[in-house]
Amino acid sequence: MTSTLKGITLKGSAELVAEFFSFGINSILYQRGIYPPETFTRVTHYDMSLQLTTDAKLKNYLTNVVSQLKEWLFECTVQKLVLVITCLETNEVLERWQFDIECDKSAKESSAPRDKSIKTIQDEIRSVIRQITATVTFLPLLETPCAFDLLIYTDKDQVVPEKWEESGPQMIDQSEEVRLRSFTTSIHKVNSMVAYKRTDSV
Question: What is the pTM of this model?
Fold first, then answer.
């Protein structure tokens, strides 16, 4: 990783944030039961147990998304990543996990490392992932088979890679929103929230 123990560079920051998304997306897919639990394997990272997919197709898809994301993080051209969970049968959006990304573009001009240790950043990331895991206590049960989609918002002049398509925002009708923790590398800041379809009590 391109960062010193004492500080963090733009490249190191892009790597850390992309890595967070890789683990974060896997955690959401596991916690929300989008893929069967037996298709995940337990790994230890950030001093905690995490679940990673072993499904070859999904692994390949996520690797491609995360490596493209890392590029955009390094260029400071990505604004947000959204993971949308939809009902397979009706295509209705049931959950929307939104991660807003702020980037200090001055880091592109100055290569001097920022004064924040990787350990501190990873501690902050661990808190966000813990919170993602804890959301199962209040999110409504997903009772139908579901699919997921990843939306990435970039600066307008960004060239979209082949096989990626333009998409609408995929909002939820009548949603509740819960803001989650944020973390910052001092170059990139990620704010997280989840919106879910309100299930009004009968």
Answer: 0.90
